[in-house]
Amino acid sequence: MNVRRLIPTTAAATATVLGAIALTACSGGDTATAKNTEKFDVVASFYPMAFLAEQIGGKNVNVTTLVEPGQEPHDLEITARQTAALTEADAILYLQGLQPAVDEAVAQTEGPERIDAATLTELEEHGAEVDGEHADEHADEHADEHEGHDHGHDHAAGAKDPHIWLDPDKYAEVAEGVSKAFQKADPDHAADYRANTEDLVNRLDALDQKFEDGLKNRKTDVFLTNHSAFGYLAEAYGLIEESITGLDPESEPSGARVKELQHIAEEDGVTTVFYETLVSDSTAKTLAEDTGLRTDVLDPLEGVTDKSRGDDYFQVMESNLTALRKALGAK
Questions:
Q1: How confident is the chain (331 residues) per 10-residue block, as mean pLDDT?
Q2: How many alpha carbons fall within 13 Å on the CB side of residue 268?
């Protein structure tokens, strides 16, 4: 394994000021470049991958992540120092299609075990923003089909949706694949990886059941979000996500899309417009003001910060469940 040296928090802060940004320790936010250990050294592309690596690897792994707390992962640009760290790692755990800069860097990196979570489950296309030219027509279709609960929300065909971790069942499937890759790359600790994975999958199964039970007896199936991060979650529990901006959290909605969402909110008894912690909430709040709706946080869990409603994946997901139950009128 690689021998790496850990920079203390104070030194890491100084390094950040000087612009020598290194990898970020996913649990505490310290920047780390190396560690004195013979542990299996894993570089994770962003929080959901780092959480899997920590949970599966346990005491046998040293996990660092490329994204700092509070940084929007889609915007990541790889530094020369991070590129070097990728080369020195024993394994790279990433999700192709979410962070173009990571995909490019990994493709150019030789040596480490490359584990692409996108290959460990089936990625699907979920609805993108409706073309403004057809928004009124789509709104009429939505109203016509509402009675049969077939809303016709396929929209235009979009890119493959990478947000697989927001469905606990899919996340468990990815965990199983990551575990097998760890066992192959580090066979001395294979038994530990299997045991840790079994525990993690059991917890994810329990979380899945909490969502299943908690979202029963709801008044509406429809929820509005800032961007289309929750397609897998919606599909898993029979919900319908309507996003303001599609899969790109930084894009701006057309006027026709905003008008359509207003129509959908009125037609489906929507009470809440959800926004998230790592991107601007201005668009969601403007829509809420225009439609007389309330706002709340639905966290896509692309990173955990001190503003998150929980300290880890499970806590934040349970907070998401609470928010959804309130918004959907679940009893």
A1: 37 37 39 58 97 98 92 88 94 95 95 97 74 37 40 46 96 98 98 98 98 96 89 96 69 72 86 80 76 89 92 97 97 89
A2: 33
